[in-house]
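Supplementary Note 3. Input sequence used for the single-chain structure prediction.
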Amino acid sequence: MRSFAFEAPLSMAGCPDFTFVWRIKNFSFCNQMKDKNLDSPKFTAHCMKNTEWFLRIYPRGRMFDCYIPCFLRRTDSSDGPQSVEIDYILTVISADGSIVFLREITGHSFERGSGFGFPDFVRRDDIFENQSLCLPEDTLTIKCQMWMYDNDAATSTYCSGCTRIGFDTRCYTWTIKEFTVRSWIQKLTIPLMTASGSPPDRSISFLLNVSDDYLHIFISNNNNRDGEGQFMKCGITVLDSEGYPRDSKKDEHLFVPHEKEWEFPLFIKKFKLTRNSEIYLPNDMLTLRCSFHISVGIESERIEEFMYGLTPSHQKHTINENIKRVQCKNLYSLRNDIHRLYVQQKFCDLALKTQNTNILVHKAVVCSRSPVISDMVENDSAVKRTGTLDLSDIDSKTLNRMITFMYSDNFEYMTPKSAEHLYLAAEKYQIYTLKELCSTVIVANLSVENVCDILAFAEQHKDATMKMASQEFICENSAEIFVSGKWQRFMIEWIELAGEIMHYVCLKKS
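The predicted structure, written as discrete structure tokens, is reproduced below.
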């Protein structure tokens, strides 16, 4: 077994004898817990001595829950010889057929009822953090290409199958009357009714814990199917007096067997609701809009398409396309290899000096990502003489994040304050993609408490996107923001900008 990289395997130089493409629709709604498998529809490779096969994955891992294992298996009742020896490639492909992840096995013999593959086929995080590439429209596509030893078939066969994971969507708007005078010692429970009128298998409960001032929301599970998990996505939004969304939160959860209740992440404070009762509690009523998407397991599975007898021109086109896709699209492996040079500190030729340490890097990488660093390395005589570039204006944690991005394009979630530090570094050293990503984190964390600071930050750095997002947030929450002490101070320090924002709000609401 060897890892496939950037060239076509020598043992698989021709068009595959058989290609199977498996599409798993609504993949994120898989109910399988760790160690539970999901199998593809079975397919018969007539051109490979009528042998019958299927793919098996473990959506939430097997030995390690951080990986999605994938195996090729031969059925117990398969026709053909007792044992067949094949080469095969397993790939995750994008919507346009481009290869995203690829693994190869050569010369493995399959008995009837046996299987072989990769316990570490692909990391779950790599799939879900790159959904536009790996999960377009929440569909995971796995391709298996097979070559059989001593096969005398003259043509190649293509087959595709589909497994659809179903889910039930339920949306409700609830009004909780007498919110401020209600006794919250007991839970307020509301069943989640089904469209069919069958008995509800979920309920939602509310409990106000006065000690921490949060409204605790519990999702109760009344569906106790032995051995099966139950996955759901949930979104809860607080509506204002005019029915517009204010605060909201989304999360997801896999109920394990016999798990009765899940507490939704805390995000609604009683103090905020009562302090702004004219916005949130008209007539002492709290209104919540809740949406639930609940997995119902496998809805359908079938073989969709069979194509026999690809012509030589089709074969040549297929081979060329596969080589081109591997060379041009499998950038994930390339990024990993380059980043590994930094992690292992191999062949470094430049030291970046911070406030308390030196970080070793490669000139070719950092100079290609930052024109400012490139200019300093090329023209600063001290850098040429010592091999050290002074970046002590950046703290070591921020610099490490910047270097990681320069090597790999990896961008991990961070606090808004950390994102501001990284934003400033990216701006100074002209790493504009990183600057945009930091701006996205800052904007995503806008709140009534910090919007004035972020608006001033956007104005200082002439960030039109951040400024517009802050402006829209203020417009949506103007009743609460314009009476706050922070806004009063903001109007003194930024009088023209404050006037511009208030003018915008007046025009928007007129």
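The domain at 446-509 is CATH 1.25.40.420 (Serine Threonine Protein Phosphatase 5, Tetratricopeptide repeat). The CA atoms of residues 90 and 166 lie 25 Å apart.
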